[in-house]
From TrEMBL:
GO molecular function (one): hydrolase activity
Protein's organism: Thermodesulfovibrio autotrophicus
Protein name as it appears in the record: DEAD/DEAH box helicase
Keywords: ATP-binding, Coiled coil, Helicase, Hydrolase, Nucleotide-binding
Residue ranges constituting the Helicase C-terminal domain according to the UniProt record: 406-554
Length: 558
Protein backbone atom coordinates (compact mmCIF):
# COMPACT_ATOMS: atom_id res chain seq x y z
CA UNK A 1 0.00 0.00 0.00
CA UNK A 2 1.30 3.45 -0.94
CA UNK A 3 0.78 6.65 1.05
CA UNK A 4 0.99 9.94 -0.86
CA UNK A 5 1.51 12.98 1.36
CA UNK A 6 3.28 16.38 1.06
CA UNK A 7 6.82 16.57 2.41
CA UNK A 8 6.96 17.07 6.15
CA UNK A 9 9.89 16.10 8.38
CA UNK A 10 7.75 15.07 11.35
CA UNK A 11 5.52 12.92 9.11
CA UNK A 12 8.58 11.32 7.51
CA UNK A 13 9.90 10.50 10.98
CA UNK A 14 6.51 8.94 11.86
CA UNK A 15 6.49 6.87 8.65
CA UNK A 16 9.97 5.55 9.37
CA UNK A 17 8.94 4.56 12.89
CA UNK A 18 6.11 2.49 11.33
CA UNK A 19 8.48 0.67 8.93
CA UNK A 20 7.28 2.48 5.78
CA UNK A 21 9.79 2.64 2.92
CA UNK A 22 10.21 5.41 0.37
CA UNK A 23 9.53 4.35 -3.23
CA UNK A 24 11.40 6.55 -5.73
CA UNK A 25 9.41 4.94 -8.55
CA UNK A 26 6.01 6.08 -7.20
CA UNK A 27 7.33 8.96 -5.09
CA UNK A 28 5.29 7.67 -2.18
CA UNK A 29 5.72 5.76 1.07
CA UNK A 30 5.16 1.99 0.88
CA UNK A 31 3.73 -0.21 3.63
CA UNK A 32 3.59 -3.99 3.18
CA UNK A 33 0.12 -5.28 4.07
CA UNK A 34 1.59 -8.69 4.81
CA UNK A 35 2.96 -7.21 8.01
CA UNK A 36 -0.56 -7.30 9.44
CA UNK A 37 -2.90 -10.21 10.07
CA UNK A 38 -6.24 -8.38 9.86
CA UNK A 39 -8.00 -5.03 9.35
CA UNK A 40 -8.11 -4.53 13.11
CA UNK A 41 -4.41 -5.27 13.41
CA UNK A 42 -3.62 -2.77 10.63
CA UNK A 43 -5.76 0.03 12.10
CA UNK A 44 -4.44 -0.51 15.63
CA UNK A 45 -0.82 -0.50 14.46
CA UNK A 46 -1.16 2.55 12.18
CA UNK A 47 -3.67 4.77 13.97
CA UNK A 48 -1.23 7.71 14.08
CA UNK A 49 -0.77 7.57 10.30
CA UNK A 50 -4.50 7.23 9.62
CA UNK A 51 -5.17 10.31 11.76
CA UNK A 52 -3.33 12.34 9.10
CA UNK A 53 -6.08 11.63 6.54
CA UNK A 54 -9.74 12.77 6.26
CA UNK A 55 -12.37 10.50 7.82
CA UNK A 56 -14.00 9.59 4.48
CA UNK A 57 -10.65 8.37 3.12
CA UNK A 58 -10.11 6.23 6.22
CA UNK A 59 -13.61 4.71 5.81
CA UNK A 60 -12.85 3.89 2.17
CA UNK A 61 -9.48 2.41 3.17
CA UNK A 62 -11.10 0.28 5.88
CA UNK A 63 -13.53 -1.26 3.38
CA UNK A 64 -10.71 -1.89 0.93
CA UNK A 65 -8.71 -3.64 3.66
CA UNK A 66 -11.68 -5.82 4.64
CA UNK A 67 -11.95 -7.03 1.05
CA UNK A 68 -8.19 -7.51 0.83
CA UNK A 69 -7.89 -9.59 4.00
CA UNK A 70 -10.97 -11.67 3.14
CA UNK A 71 -9.40 -12.59 -0.20
CA UNK A 72 -6.04 -13.20 1.48
CA UNK A 73 -7.60 -15.54 4.04
CA UNK A 74 -9.34 -17.45 1.24
CA UNK A 75 -6.01 -17.88 -0.53
CA UNK A 76 -4.36 -19.01 2.70
CA UNK A 77 -7.11 -21.61 3.18
CA UNK A 78 -6.27 -22.97 -0.28
CA UNK A 79 -2.80 -23.75 1.06
CA UNK A 80 -4.46 -26.24 3.42
CA UNK A 81 -6.93 -27.56 0.85
CA UNK A 82 -7.74 -31.23 1.35
CA UNK A 83 -10.29 -31.87 -1.40
CA UNK A 84 -11.17 -30.75 -4.93
CA UNK A 85 -13.10 -31.78 -8.02
CA UNK A 86 -10.03 -31.09 -10.15
CA UNK A 87 -9.66 -34.00 -12.62
CA UNK A 88 -6.30 -35.75 -12.27
CA UNK A 89 -5.44 -38.55 -14.72
CA UNK A 90 -4.48 -41.78 -12.95
CA UNK A 91 -3.44 -45.27 -14.12
CA UNK A 92 -6.12 -47.94 -14.13
CA UNK A 93 -6.50 -49.63 -10.76
CA UNK A 94 -5.05 -46.71 -8.78
CA UNK A 95 -6.66 -43.64 -7.24
CA UNK A 96 -5.60 -40.46 -5.48
CA UNK A 97 -6.82 -39.42 -2.06
CA UNK A 98 -8.86 -36.18 -2.23
CA UNK A 99 -6.05 -34.15 -0.61
CA UNK A 100 -3.61 -35.50 -3.23
CA UNK A 101 -5.90 -34.29 -6.03
CA UNK A 102 -5.93 -30.90 -4.31
CA UNK A 103 -2.14 -31.03 -4.24
CA UNK A 104 -1.93 -31.71 -7.98
CA UNK A 105 -4.31 -28.80 -8.63
CA UNK A 106 -2.03 -26.52 -6.58
CA UNK A 107 0.99 -27.70 -8.60
CA UNK A 108 -0.84 -26.99 -11.85
CA UNK A 109 -2.09 -23.53 -10.93
CA UNK A 110 1.06 -22.09 -9.34
CA UNK A 111 4.24 -21.04 -11.14
CA UNK A 112 6.54 -22.57 -8.52
CA UNK A 113 5.54 -24.55 -5.44
CA UNK A 114 6.79 -25.46 -1.99
CA UNK A 115 4.90 -28.71 -1.31
CA UNK A 116 5.45 -29.05 2.42
CA UNK A 117 3.04 -31.86 3.34
CA UNK A 118 3.98 -33.97 6.35
CA UNK A 119 5.98 -37.11 5.74
CA UNK A 120 3.97 -40.03 4.41
CA UNK A 121 1.30 -38.02 2.59
CA UNK A 122 2.62 -38.86 -0.87
CA UNK A 123 4.51 -35.85 -2.20
CA UNK A 124 6.13 -37.96 -4.95
CA UNK A 125 2.70 -39.32 -5.96
CA UNK A 126 1.35 -35.77 -6.28
CA UNK A 127 4.36 -34.87 -8.42
CA UNK A 128 3.58 -37.84 -10.68
CA UNK A 129 0.02 -36.49 -10.82
CA UNK A 130 1.37 -33.19 -12.16
CA UNK A 131 3.31 -35.07 -14.86
CA UNK A 132 0.08 -36.93 -15.72
CA UNK A 133 -1.73 -33.62 -16.09
CA UNK A 134 1.00 -32.48 -18.50
CA UNK A 135 0.59 -35.69 -20.50
CA UNK A 136 -3.17 -35.13 -20.68
CA UNK A 137 -2.42 -31.73 -22.23
CA UNK A 138 -0.16 -33.47 -24.79
CA UNK A 139 2.91 -31.98 -23.09
CA UNK A 140 5.71 -34.42 -22.35
CA UNK A 141 7.75 -33.78 -19.21
CA UNK A 142 11.36 -32.74 -19.66
CA UNK A 143 12.02 -33.02 -15.98
CA UNK A 144 14.83 -33.36 -13.49
CA UNK A 145 14.24 -34.91 -10.06
CA UNK A 146 17.03 -34.06 -7.59
CA UNK A 147 16.84 -36.09 -4.39
CA UNK A 148 18.95 -37.82 -1.69
CA UNK A 149 20.79 -40.90 -2.96
CA UNK A 150 18.74 -43.10 -0.63
CA UNK A 151 15.48 -42.49 -2.50
CA UNK A 152 16.55 -42.39 -6.17
CA UNK A 153 15.23 -45.84 -6.93
CA UNK A 154 12.09 -45.24 -4.90
CA UNK A 155 11.38 -42.30 -7.22
CA UNK A 156 11.88 -44.60 -10.19
CA UNK A 157 9.48 -47.14 -8.71
CA UNK A 158 6.80 -44.57 -7.83
CA UNK A 159 6.94 -42.84 -11.23
CA UNK A 160 6.72 -46.14 -13.10
CA UNK A 161 3.73 -47.07 -10.95
CA UNK A 162 1.79 -43.78 -11.11
CA UNK A 163 2.43 -42.36 -14.61
CA UNK A 164 -0.44 -42.86 -17.05
CA UNK A 165 1.92 -43.82 -19.87
CA UNK A 166 5.44 -45.23 -19.92
CA UNK A 167 8.14 -42.57 -20.12
CA UNK A 168 11.87 -42.81 -20.60
CA UNK A 169 13.29 -42.34 -17.09
CA UNK A 170 17.00 -42.46 -16.34
CA UNK A 171 18.66 -42.72 -12.94
CA UNK A 172 22.01 -40.93 -13.11
CA UNK A 173 24.96 -42.49 -11.26
CA UNK A 174 28.52 -41.36 -10.62
CA UNK A 175 30.32 -38.03 -10.35
CA UNK A 176 31.76 -38.00 -13.87
CA UNK A 177 30.66 -35.70 -16.67
CA UNK A 178 27.29 -36.22 -18.24
CA UNK A 179 25.52 -35.58 -21.55
CA UNK A 180 21.80 -34.89 -21.59
CA UNK A 181 19.84 -37.04 -24.05
CA UNK A 182 16.80 -35.62 -25.82
CA UNK A 183 14.98 -38.98 -25.66
CA UNK A 184 14.89 -39.01 -21.84
CA UNK A 185 11.75 -37.52 -20.28
CA UNK A 186 12.77 -37.59 -16.61
CA UNK A 187 16.24 -37.69 -15.06
CA UNK A 188 16.68 -38.72 -11.42
CA UNK A 189 19.94 -37.93 -9.62
CA UNK A 190 21.17 -37.12 -6.14
CA UNK A 191 22.42 -33.80 -4.77
CA UNK A 192 25.96 -35.09 -4.28
CA UNK A 193 26.68 -35.66 -7.99
CA UNK A 194 25.30 -32.45 -9.53
CA UNK A 195 28.72 -31.00 -10.31
CA UNK A 196 29.56 -31.03 -14.04
CA UNK A 197 26.02 -32.14 -14.88
CA UNK A 198 24.30 -29.79 -17.32
CA UNK A 199 20.60 -29.76 -18.18
CA UNK A 200 18.80 -27.45 -20.59
CA UNK A 201 15.27 -26.87 -21.90
CA UNK A 202 13.66 -28.48 -18.86
CA UNK A 203 10.00 -27.75 -18.13
CA UNK A 204 10.11 -28.98 -14.52
CA UNK A 205 12.73 -29.28 -11.76
CA UNK A 206 11.80 -31.24 -8.63
CA UNK A 207 13.84 -30.70 -5.47
CA UNK A 208 13.01 -33.58 -3.13
CA UNK A 209 13.97 -33.02 0.53
CA UNK A 210 14.54 -29.39 -0.48
CA UNK A 211 15.93 -28.55 2.96
CA UNK A 212 19.17 -30.07 1.60
CA UNK A 213 19.84 -26.62 0.10
CA UNK A 214 19.36 -24.68 3.35
CA UNK A 215 22.99 -23.46 3.32
CA UNK A 216 23.59 -20.92 0.51
CA UNK A 217 27.36 -21.49 0.73
CA UNK A 218 27.17 -25.27 0.33
CA UNK A 219 28.33 -26.72 -3.00
CA UNK A 220 25.08 -28.65 -3.48
CA UNK A 221 23.05 -25.43 -3.08
CA UNK A 222 25.20 -23.62 -5.64
CA UNK A 223 24.80 -26.50 -8.10
CA UNK A 224 21.01 -26.53 -7.67
CA UNK A 225 20.88 -22.76 -8.21
CA UNK A 226 23.06 -23.11 -11.33
CA UNK A 227 20.76 -25.72 -12.86
CA UNK A 228 17.61 -23.74 -12.01
CA UNK A 229 19.08 -20.54 -13.46
CA UNK A 230 20.00 -22.48 -16.63
CA UNK A 231 16.32 -23.37 -17.05
CA UNK A 232 14.44 -20.12 -16.36
CA UNK A 233 11.15 -21.40 -17.81
CA UNK A 234 11.05 -24.60 -15.75
CA UNK A 235 8.50 -24.96 -12.96
CA UNK A 236 10.33 -25.58 -9.68
CA UNK A 237 8.62 -27.97 -7.26
CA UNK A 238 10.33 -28.08 -3.86
CA UNK A 239 9.26 -31.04 -1.72
CA UNK A 240 9.97 -31.21 1.99
CA UNK A 241 8.08 -32.06 5.15
CA UNK A 242 10.58 -29.90 7.06
CA UNK A 243 11.20 -26.70 5.05
CA UNK A 244 12.78 -25.08 8.11
CA UNK A 245 14.85 -27.47 10.22
CA UNK A 246 15.94 -25.04 12.91
CA UNK A 247 15.57 -21.37 11.98
CA UNK A 248 13.94 -19.12 9.35
CA UNK A 249 17.24 -18.23 7.66
CA UNK A 250 17.33 -21.80 6.28
CA UNK A 251 14.28 -21.01 4.16
CA UNK A 252 15.89 -18.22 2.17
CA UNK A 253 17.73 -20.30 -0.49
CA UNK A 254 14.54 -22.25 -1.28
CA UNK A 255 12.33 -19.14 -1.36
CA UNK A 256 14.84 -17.25 -3.46
CA UNK A 257 14.46 -19.96 -6.12
CA UNK A 258 10.68 -20.26 -5.86
CA UNK A 259 9.68 -16.61 -5.49
CA UNK A 260 12.62 -14.36 -6.39
CA UNK A 261 10.32 -11.38 -6.99
CA UNK A 262 9.63 -11.29 -3.26
CA UNK A 263 12.63 -13.02 -1.68
CA UNK A 264 15.64 -11.57 -3.47
CA UNK A 265 17.38 -9.69 -0.68
CA UNK A 266 19.11 -11.83 1.95
CA UNK A 267 19.66 -9.00 4.45
CA UNK A 268 16.12 -7.69 4.10
CA UNK A 269 14.81 -11.23 4.73
CA UNK A 270 17.04 -11.84 7.74
CA UNK A 271 16.32 -8.46 9.34
CA UNK A 272 12.59 -9.06 9.04
CA UNK A 273 12.34 -12.76 9.87
CA UNK A 274 15.59 -13.80 11.57
CA UNK A 275 16.10 -10.94 14.07
CA UNK A 276 19.47 -10.31 12.41
CA UNK A 277 21.93 -8.41 14.59
CA UNK A 278 25.64 -7.91 15.13
CA UNK A 279 27.29 -9.74 17.99
CA UNK A 280 30.79 -9.83 19.42
CA UNK A 281 32.87 -13.01 19.39
CA UNK A 282 36.38 -13.54 20.78
CA UNK A 283 39.12 -14.39 18.25
CA UNK A 284 42.91 -14.69 18.43
CA UNK A 285 43.11 -11.15 17.08
CA UNK A 286 40.68 -9.86 19.71
CA UNK A 287 36.95 -9.14 19.74
CA UNK A 288 35.28 -9.34 16.34
CA UNK A 289 31.78 -8.25 15.33
CA UNK A 290 29.83 -10.71 13.17
CA UNK A 291 26.28 -11.03 11.92
CA UNK A 292 23.97 -13.41 13.76
CA UNK A 293 21.07 -14.74 11.65
CA UNK A 294 20.09 -17.58 13.98
CA UNK A 295 17.06 -15.88 15.50
CA UNK A 296 13.41 -15.71 14.51
CA UNK A 297 11.03 -12.76 14.21
CA UNK A 298 7.65 -12.08 12.58
CA UNK A 299 7.24 -15.79 11.93
CA UNK A 300 3.43 -15.67 11.71
CA UNK A 301 3.74 -13.02 9.04
CA UNK A 302 6.21 -15.18 7.12
CA UNK A 303 3.81 -18.10 7.36
CA UNK A 304 0.97 -15.98 5.93
CA UNK A 305 3.15 -14.86 3.02
CA UNK A 306 4.24 -18.42 2.21
CA UNK A 307 0.71 -19.82 2.39
CA UNK A 308 -0.66 -16.99 0.24
CA UNK A 309 1.99 -17.45 -2.46
CA UNK A 310 3.98 -20.68 -2.96
CA UNK A 311 3.38 -23.09 -0.09
CA UNK A 312 0.91 -25.96 0.23
CA UNK A 313 1.11 -27.76 3.56
CA UNK A 314 -1.24 -30.38 5.00
CA UNK A 315 -0.43 -32.25 8.18
CA UNK A 316 -1.51 -35.81 8.92
CA UNK A 317 -4.12 -34.57 11.38
CA UNK A 318 -5.72 -32.52 8.58
CA UNK A 319 -6.34 -35.54 6.33
CA UNK A 320 -6.39 -38.40 8.83
CA UNK A 321 -9.92 -39.51 7.88
CA UNK A 322 -8.78 -40.13 4.30
CA UNK A 323 -5.73 -42.21 5.18
CA UNK A 324 -5.60 -45.94 5.89
CA UNK A 325 -4.46 -47.00 9.36
CA UNK A 326 -1.18 -48.32 7.99
CA UNK A 327 0.86 -47.75 4.81
CA UNK A 328 3.66 -50.14 3.86
CA UNK A 329 6.38 -48.91 1.49
CA UNK A 330 9.10 -51.12 0.05
CA UNK A 331 12.08 -48.81 -0.57
CA UNK A 332 14.33 -50.12 -3.38
CA UNK A 333 18.10 -49.95 -2.82
CA UNK A 334 20.63 -50.48 -5.59
CA UNK A 335 23.21 -53.11 -4.62
CA UNK A 336 26.93 -52.72 -5.18
CA UNK A 337 28.38 -55.36 -7.48
CA UNK A 338 30.82 -57.06 -5.09
CA UNK A 339 32.06 -60.56 -5.95
CA UNK A 340 31.57 -61.85 -2.40
CA UNK A 341 27.93 -60.75 -2.29
CA UNK A 342 27.19 -62.05 -5.80
CA UNK A 343 28.69 -65.42 -4.87
CA UNK A 344 26.58 -65.60 -1.72
CA UNK A 345 23.50 -64.57 -3.70
CA UNK A 346 24.12 -67.43 -6.16
CA UNK A 347 24.56 -70.04 -3.41
CA UNK A 348 21.41 -68.81 -1.68
CA UNK A 349 19.44 -69.01 -4.93
CA UNK A 350 20.59 -72.61 -5.38
CA UNK A 351 19.39 -73.64 -1.94
CA UNK A 352 16.05 -71.91 -2.55
CA UNK A 353 15.69 -73.77 -5.85
CA UNK A 354 16.23 -77.05 -4.01
CA UNK A 355 13.49 -76.11 -1.55
CA UNK A 356 11.15 -75.23 -4.40
CA UNK A 357 11.74 -78.58 -6.08
CA UNK A 358 11.07 -80.53 -2.88
CA UNK A 359 7.91 -78.51 -2.24
CA UNK A 360 6.65 -79.44 -5.71
CA UNK A 361 7.40 -83.11 -5.12
CA UNK A 362 5.72 -83.09 -1.70
CA UNK A 363 2.62 -81.52 -3.23
CA UNK A 364 2.50 -84.23 -5.91
CA UNK A 365 3.17 -87.12 -3.51
CA UNK A 366 0.38 -85.93 -1.20
CA UNK A 367 -2.04 -86.41 -4.10
CA UNK A 368 -0.69 -89.94 -4.70
CA UNK A 369 -0.97 -90.77 -0.98
CA UNK A 370 2.50 -92.38 -0.91
CA UNK A 371 3.25 -92.04 2.81
CA UNK A 372 6.68 -93.67 2.73
CA UNK A 373 8.01 -91.40 -0.03
CA UNK A 374 6.37 -88.42 1.64
CA UNK A 375 8.30 -89.09 4.85
CA UNK A 376 11.56 -89.36 2.88
CA UNK A 377 10.93 -86.02 1.17
CA UNK A 378 10.06 -84.31 4.45
CA UNK A 379 13.29 -85.64 5.96
CA UNK A 380 15.21 -84.33 2.93
CA UNK A 381 13.51 -80.95 3.34
CA UNK A 382 14.62 -80.79 6.97
CA UNK A 383 18.19 -81.65 5.93
CA UNK A 384 18.23 -78.86 3.33
CA UNK A 385 16.67 -76.53 5.88
CA UNK A 386 19.56 -77.17 8.27
CA UNK A 387 21.96 -76.10 5.51
CA UNK A 388 19.75 -73.21 4.37
CA UNK A 389 19.35 -71.51 7.75
CA UNK A 390 23.00 -70.53 8.35
CA UNK A 391 23.44 -69.64 4.67
CA UNK A 392 20.40 -67.38 4.61
CA UNK A 393 21.42 -65.85 7.93
CA UNK A 394 24.79 -64.97 6.39
CA UNK A 395 22.97 -63.56 3.37
CA UNK A 396 20.79 -61.46 5.66
CA UNK A 397 23.90 -59.96 7.29
CA UNK A 398 25.52 -59.10 3.97
CA UNK A 399 22.26 -57.69 2.62
CA UNK A 400 22.15 -55.29 5.57
CA UNK A 401 25.73 -54.18 4.83
CA UNK A 402 24.61 -53.38 1.28
CA UNK A 403 21.64 -51.32 2.56
CA UNK A 404 23.24 -49.79 5.64
CA UNK A 405 24.30 -46.39 4.27
CA UNK A 406 20.96 -45.80 2.57
CA UNK A 407 19.02 -46.63 5.74
CA UNK A 408 21.21 -44.31 7.84
CA UNK A 409 20.66 -41.44 5.40
CA UNK A 410 16.92 -42.12 5.38
CA UNK A 411 16.85 -41.99 9.18
CA UNK A 412 18.89 -38.78 9.29
CA UNK A 413 16.36 -37.12 6.98
CA UNK A 414 13.29 -38.56 8.71
CA UNK A 415 14.40 -37.80 12.27
CA UNK A 416 14.43 -34.10 11.45
CA UNK A 417 10.66 -34.12 11.78
CA UNK A 418 9.43 -37.55 12.87
CA UNK A 419 9.87 -39.99 15.73
CA UNK A 420 10.98 -43.38 14.46
CA UNK A 421 11.15 -46.99 15.62
CA UNK A 422 13.88 -49.11 13.95
CA UNK A 423 13.60 -52.90 14.02
CA UNK A 424 16.49 -55.27 13.30
CA UNK A 425 17.07 -59.03 13.42
CA UNK A 426 20.64 -59.08 14.77
CA UNK A 427 21.71 -57.58 18.08
CA UNK A 428 24.89 -56.13 16.61
CA UNK A 429 22.84 -54.31 13.95
CA UNK A 430 20.63 -52.80 16.67
CA UNK A 431 23.77 -51.71 18.53
CA UNK A 432 25.19 -50.25 15.30
CA UNK A 433 22.19 -47.92 15.04
CA UNK A 434 22.48 -47.07 18.72
CA UNK A 435 26.10 -46.00 18.20
CA UNK A 436 25.39 -44.17 14.93
CA UNK A 437 22.64 -42.08 16.54
CA UNK A 438 24.11 -41.94 20.06
CA UNK A 439 23.63 -38.15 20.12
CA UNK A 440 19.85 -38.78 20.23
CA UNK A 441 20.25 -41.09 23.25
CA UNK A 442 17.96 -43.79 21.83
CA UNK A 443 16.93 -46.86 23.85
CA UNK A 444 18.33 -50.08 22.33
CA UNK A 445 16.22 -53.09 23.29
CA UNK A 446 17.53 -56.59 22.53
CA UNK A 447 17.15 -60.11 23.91
CA UNK A 448 19.86 -59.22 26.45
CA UNK A 449 17.69 -56.48 28.00
CA UNK A 450 16.23 -57.27 31.42
CA UNK A 451 12.47 -57.01 32.01
CA UNK A 452 12.98 -53.98 34.28
CA UNK A 453 15.20 -52.15 31.79
CA UNK A 454 12.83 -53.07 28.97
CA UNK A 455 9.91 -51.28 30.62
CA UNK A 456 12.10 -48.30 31.54
CA UNK A 457 13.20 -47.98 27.89
CA UNK A 458 9.60 -48.00 26.67
CA UNK A 459 8.56 -45.35 29.20
CA UNK A 460 11.61 -43.25 28.29
CA UNK A 461 10.61 -43.27 24.60
CA UNK A 462 6.88 -42.86 25.21
CA UNK A 463 7.56 -39.77 27.33
CA UNK A 464 9.29 -38.11 24.37
CA UNK A 465 12.85 -38.14 25.70
CA UNK A 466 14.29 -39.45 22.42
CA UNK A 467 12.92 -39.37 18.85
CA UNK A 468 14.38 -42.83 18.14
CA UNK A 469 13.71 -46.31 19.53
CA UNK A 470 15.81 -49.29 18.37
CA UNK A 471 14.94 -52.93 18.98
CA UNK A 472 15.41 -56.43 17.66
CA UNK A 473 12.14 -57.80 16.29
CA UNK A 474 12.02 -60.91 18.49
CA UNK A 475 12.74 -58.93 21.67
CA UNK A 476 10.11 -56.25 21.02
CA UNK A 477 7.42 -57.98 18.98
CA UNK A 478 5.16 -58.52 21.98
CA UNK A 479 4.03 -56.78 25.13
CA UNK A 480 5.17 -53.20 24.52
CA UNK A 481 3.57 -50.01 23.21
CA UNK A 482 5.49 -47.56 21.01
CA UNK A 483 2.69 -45.24 19.87
CA UNK A 484 4.84 -42.15 20.44
CA UNK A 485 6.10 -42.81 16.88
CA UNK A 486 4.09 -43.39 13.72
CA UNK A 487 7.07 -44.26 11.49
CA UNK A 488 8.69 -47.70 11.61
CA UNK A 489 11.78 -48.78 9.67
CA UNK A 490 12.74 -52.42 9.15
CA UNK A 491 16.51 -52.53 8.68
CA UNK A 492 16.28 -56.33 8.75
CA UNK A 493 13.35 -58.71 8.85
CA UNK A 494 12.11 -62.06 10.09
CA UNK A 495 10.99 -64.83 7.75
CA UNK A 496 7.66 -65.17 9.52
CA UNK A 497 5.04 -62.62 8.37
CA UNK A 498 3.21 -62.84 11.70
CA UNK A 499 6.34 -61.66 13.56
CA UNK A 500 6.67 -58.66 11.25
CA UNK A 501 3.02 -57.82 11.80
CA UNK A 502 3.50 -58.03 15.57
CA UNK A 503 6.44 -55.63 15.32
CA UNK A 504 4.44 -53.12 13.26
CA UNK A 505 1.63 -53.37 15.75
CA UNK A 506 3.83 -52.01 18.54
CA UNK A 507 2.97 -48.68 16.86
CA UNK A 508 -0.35 -49.58 15.23
CA UNK A 509 -2.48 -50.03 18.33
CA UNK A 510 -4.83 -48.18 20.69
CA UNK A 511 -3.34 -44.76 21.44
CA UNK A 512 -1.94 -44.21 17.95
CA UNK A 513 -3.25 -40.91 16.59
CA UNK A 514 -1.67 -41.05 13.11
CA UNK A 515 -1.38 -43.35 10.14
CA UNK A 516 1.55 -45.71 10.69
CA UNK A 517 4.11 -45.55 7.88
CA UNK A 518 6.11 -48.77 7.63
CA UNK A 519 9.30 -48.74 5.51
CA UNK A 520 11.02 -51.91 4.26
CA UNK A 521 14.36 -51.58 2.48
CA UNK A 522 14.99 -54.09 -0.32
CA UNK A 523 17.99 -54.66 -2.62
CA UNK A 524 16.83 -54.28 -6.22
CA UNK A 525 16.64 -57.49 -8.29
CA UNK A 526 17.81 -59.72 -5.46
CA UNK A 527 16.66 -62.50 -3.15
CA UNK A 528 16.35 -59.81 -0.50
CA UNK A 529 13.72 -57.99 -2.58
CA UNK A 530 11.95 -61.27 -3.38
CA UNK A 531 11.69 -62.21 0.31
CA UNK A 532 10.44 -58.78 1.36
CA UNK A 533 7.85 -58.60 -1.41
CA UNK A 534 6.64 -62.07 -0.38
CA UNK A 535 6.30 -61.04 3.26
CA UNK A 536 4.48 -57.80 2.41
CA UNK A 537 2.20 -59.68 0.00
CA UNK A 538 1.30 -62.18 2.72
CA UNK A 539 0.62 -59.38 5.21
CA UNK A 540 -1.62 -57.55 2.74
CA UNK A 541 -3.61 -60.74 2.17
CA UNK A 542 -4.05 -61.12 5.92
CA UNK A 543 -6.11 -57.93 5.94
CA UNK A 544 -9.04 -59.80 4.44
CA UNK A 545 -8.25 -63.53 4.77
CA UNK A 546 -7.32 -65.58 7.83
CA UNK A 547 -4.34 -67.59 6.54
CA UNK A 548 -3.70 -71.13 7.77
CA UNK A 549 0.05 -70.79 7.25
CA UNK A 550 0.57 -67.29 8.63
CA UNK A 551 3.32 -68.55 10.96
CA UNK A 552 5.21 -70.42 8.22
CA UNK A 553 8.61 -69.09 7.25
CA UNK A 554 8.73 -67.34 3.88
CA UNK A 555 11.85 -69.03 2.52
CA UNK A 556 10.18 -72.39 3.11
CA UNK A 557 7.23 -71.26 0.97
CA UNK A 558 9.17 -69.70 -1.92
Amino acid sequence: MYFFIPYNESIISLFKQHKLRWSPEYRAWYLDLNYFSSVENFIESNSQILNLYPEEEVIYLTQYLKDYYNKLNNVIELSRKADTNFPVPVPQGLSYYPYQRAGVEFLVRKKNVLLADSMGLGKSIQTAGYFNWLLKQKIYPKALVICPASVKYNWLKELNKWLIEPLKIEVVEGKNGFTQETAVHIYILNYDILKDKHFYNLNCIVLDEAHYIKNPEAQRTKEVVRICRSNPHAKIIALTGTPMLNRPVELFPILNLLYPERFNDFFKFTFRYCAAHRKEIPTKQGIKKVWDFSGASNVEELGRILRSTVMLRREKKDVLRELPDKIRTVVPVKQTVSNSFLSLEERTKNIINQIQEINKKIKQIKKENNKELLQQLKAEKLRIRSVALPLINEYRRMAFEEKKDVIVQFLEDTLNNEKVVVFTHHRDVAKFFGETFHHLKPPVLTGETSARDRQAMVEYFQSGKSPLFIATIMAAAEGITLTEASTVVFAEYEWTPAKMLQAEDRLHRIGQKNTVNSYWFALVNSIDEMFINKIVEKLEIQKSVMMDNESEEIFMMV
